[in-house]
Amino acid sequence: MRHHKQQGISALGLLLILAIGGFFLTVATKVGPLYLDNSFVNAALQSLKNESVHTLSDRQVRRKLSDYFLVNNVRDVNVRDVIIERKKMRTIVRLDYERRINFLANVDVVVVFKNSYDSSAP
User: Fold this and answer.
1) What 3-state class would DSSP assign to 105?
2) Which listed residue, 31, 44, 73, 78, has the most CB atoms within 10 A of its CB?
3) Per-residue pLDDT tens digits for 61-94
4) Where are the alpha helices (DSSP H) in the chain?
């Protein structure tokens, strides 16, 4: 009785692997930049720790964020969407937004981001 060893991947198997790899590569190139921009948005809000946010006006806070966005090339986020809540002993700065991108043909992806900075947080 002779046993034959399997000697590699079939053409159909290779095609399936390439299709799956292509799908994940498409996801990474389309959705990845949105998460990269959001990491800069979050970093901009957290950079307010170095400022005395409680004493800055709303306009000054937005200006600092806008400058940070400009330096880091964050394009699709508007500083006018920043919500600044002033309380007695703290200031909360929030920037919640969503992005919609065309993924494939008529399939869109909507990504929702919620970012905040609380001046009373350690």
Assistant:
1) coil
2) 44
3) 999 999 999 999 998 899 999 999 998 888 999 9
4) 11-46, 58-71
